[in-house]
Design a protein that fits this description.
4 helices; mainly alpha
């Protein structure tokens, strides 16, 4: 029971990690201040919008909840996007750790029927 709650908490922290990763990437993507501002704030805003529309609360709080393969694709795109943002920022090891935690979390959510 405690492990399932810890896995749910990990999912929440992974969601926050995506926002932090994309924001960090945005502020490192260019030398121009306006591009940094646009990407650093706009990137996370885009991820928030997509997640709110299609994935929030495991789909329960989403405007257009996805299930099955569509939900899996959404998660891979969002959380893979967070890992890719870290990688693009030059943070290779954190990117690998982030993606590995996502995969572990996803597998445990499937096994424990938390999806």
């Amino acid at each position: 029971m405690l492990a399932k709650h810890a896995n749910a908490a990990l999912m929440f922290f992974l969601e926050l990690g995506v926002l932090a990763s994309v924001g960090y990437w945005g502020f490192t993507v260019s030398d121009l201040w306006m591009i940094k501002l646009l990407a650093g704030l706009g990137g996370p805003a885009l991820f928030i919008a997509v997640w709110a529309l299609f994935g929030a609360g495991g789909g329960a709080n989403a405007v257009f909840p996805l299930t099955g393969l569509a939900r899996a694709a959404l998660e891979i795109l969002c959380f893979g996007g967070g890992a890719a943002a870290l990688y693009a920022s030059g943070l290779v090891t954190p990117a690998a750790v982030f993606f590995a935690l996502f995969v572990l979390n996803a597998v445990l959510r499937i096994i424990w029927k938390q999806v």
